[in-house]
Design a protein that fits this description.
Length: 324
């Protein structure tokens, strides 16, 4: 006689076969579908880290909203930072469809347990940093995220479509800030070059560790969450930057950067991976400041959450009253 345990093993095997088939045929996995636990965990990890990055990523640029050089620049920067908040919210919502709560994710972030992108632990001392972030950081984000529009998990892929449209506006506004500075005074050109010198290498590190030190890549690519390896995307990004740097008249700060006819790609210098892993361990120039700021903002926003919950409670009571 077949035991209930055997039956559930058969069910799981059927469900796994269905899941594998959907992934193999480029069909989307939706929240209602069965999925392996490890797939769910990987998605929660990546999507929540991605959401945290968008939220923490508001801080380096938020730093310049009150000091933007003109009303127009201030309006653009505010809209951009607001877009990042929106991206964080779409992504938290996508992660919630996998069964994790927003409170849990928030706790993981403010307690310092969760990772967020290394790039946001660097300071923004000059206005040119707004240009360098738009051009390099949003540029890297686009290269990384366009393939994620085809991620096998439906809510993640769909969120990415909208995020990428906004990121391309962000990238262009960063490029335009740098172009304006490069067409200005000697001092402005130096400020632009200095910002690019500081953001170039950390933006390359955004793509994650080299392929031979990337423990999650192989499985994530099999599941079609990731479509390209960290190194492939990094290479693609550099190929995109070189002609844009020429238009800007900016030098990319890598003396080893040169076109290789044989490989059909750019050779480049070594990224400082020790620095990258130090930032991941919480020891970057701004890790403590970023987390402290987020924690304080969360505490100071408690009354808004309470008011919203109370409003929702009253609305629900009113609706029940109408039904009765
Ligand atoms: N920073 O096996 P790997 C934005 C971690 S926001 C920190 O290659 P995976 C914007 C990685 O999590 C853009 N940690 O991992 C916002 C893993 O640790 P765990 C943010 C990193 O997941 C405001 C370990 O290292 N973009 O654009 O296969 C203003 C080993 O790595 C980083 C996303 O989040 C890093 N840079 O690949 C302006 C994109 N890199 O989790 C702009 C979505 C790696 O095992 N995420 N780690 O403890 C991804 O595409 C992938 O998660 C990654 C890493 C390519 C980042």
């Amino acid at each position: 006689m077949t035991s209930p345990a055997d039956l559930s093993a058969v069910d799981d095997a059927d469900a796994l076969a269905r899941f594998d088939e959907l992934v193999a045929h480029e069909q989307r996995i939706e929240p209602r579908d069965w999925m392996p636990d490890a797939y769910r965990k990987t998605l929660i990890r990546q999507i929540s880290q991605h959401a945290h990055s968008e939220i923490i990523g508001m801080q380096p640029e938020g730093n310049w909203i009150t000091r933007a050089p003109s009303l127009k620049r201030k309006a653009i920067l505010m809209a951009k930072v607001q877009d990042e908040a929106g991206h964080g919210l779409y992504l938290y919502s996508a992660a919630q469809t996998l069964g994790v709560t927003r409170d849990t994710m928030t706790d993981q972030l403010i307690s310092g347990k969760a990772k967020y992108s290394s790039i946001f632990n660097y300071p923004t001392p000059t206005w040119a940093d707004m240009g360098a972030i738009g051009w390099l950081v949003d540029g890297a984000a686009i290269v990384n995220q366009v393939p994620l529009c085809r991620a096998s998990y439906g809510p993640y892929g769909r969120a990415m479509v909208r995020v990428c449209k906004e990121e391309s506006f962000h990238q262009r506004q960063g490029f335009e800030i740098l172009l304006t500075l490069m067409q200005g005074s000697e001092e402005q050109r130096e400020m632009a070059q200095d910002a690019v010198n500081r953001w170039y290498w950390p933006s390359l590190a955004m793509f994650g560790p080299p392929d031979d030190q990337s423990p999650n890549s192989a499985q994530s690519m099999k599941w079609k969450i990731k479509r390209f390896s960290n190194d492939d995307l990094r290479q693609r990004f550099v190929g995109m930057l070189v002609p844009q740097a020429e238009i800007l008249g900016i030098t990319l700060p890598d003396p080893e950067l040169k076109w290789n006819e044989e490989t059909g790609a750019y050779d480049m210098g070594e990224i400082d991976w020790d620095e990258f892993f130090e930032v991941l361990r919480g020891n970057g120039p701004c890790n403590a400041e970023r987390l402290e700021r987020r924690r304080t903002a969360h505490e100071e926003g408690a009354w808004v959450r309470e008011a919203a919950a109370e409003y929702a409670r009253k609305q629900a009571l009113r609706t029940e009253g109408q039904v009765a």
